[in-house]
């Protein structure tokens, strides 16, 4: 299974579309086998869900995400987990342990006024 975490530095990004990139973890039997950084190729409506599907990602984790993006990930059979905060490595471990649940945090517009992912 591949889990992509939208990141800024070592922290989960508040908005997946504007993150610096994605740390993609390869997980098997609740063990991280390795990870690789995939730079964000650019924020264009509808592009990132297809881009990550092409990377064989099964799960996307982010602080916040727009409703349309969540729908597109679902159409690409990628599980969406939003509302995550903190260190990307810790968040992935919480996901593996079944302790990370999506809050359904939706960004309503692109002018977030510092509320996206809160």
UniProtKB/TrEMBL annotation:
Q: What Pfam families does this protein map onto?
A: Nitro_FeMo-Co
InterPro entries for this protein: Di-Nase_FeMo-co_biosynth, DiNase_FeMo-co_biosyn_sf, MTH1175_dom
Where in this chain does the record put each Dinitrogenase iron-molybdenum cofactor biosynthesis domain?
8-96
Q: Which SUPFAM superfamilies match?
A: Nitrogenase accessory factor-like (SSF53146)
Question: This chain belongs to which protein, by name?
Answer: NifB/NifX family molybdenum-iron cluster-binding protein
Q: Which organism is it from?
A: Vallitalea pronyensis
């Amino acid at each position: 299974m591949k889990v992509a975490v939208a990141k800024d530095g070592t922290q989960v990004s508040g908005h997946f579309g504007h993150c610096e990139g994605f740390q993609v973890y390869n997980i098997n039997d609740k063990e991280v086998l390795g990870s690789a950084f995939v730079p964000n190729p650019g924020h264009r409506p509808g592009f990132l869900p297809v881009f990550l599907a092409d990377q064989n990602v099964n799960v996307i984790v982010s602080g916040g995400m727009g409703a349309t993006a969540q729908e597109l990930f679902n159409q690409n059979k990628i599980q969406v987990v939003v509302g995550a905060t903190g260190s990307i490595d810790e968040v992935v471990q919480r996901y593996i342990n079944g302790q990370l649940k999506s809050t359904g945090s939706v960004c309503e517009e692109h002018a977030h006024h510092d509320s996206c992912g809160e």
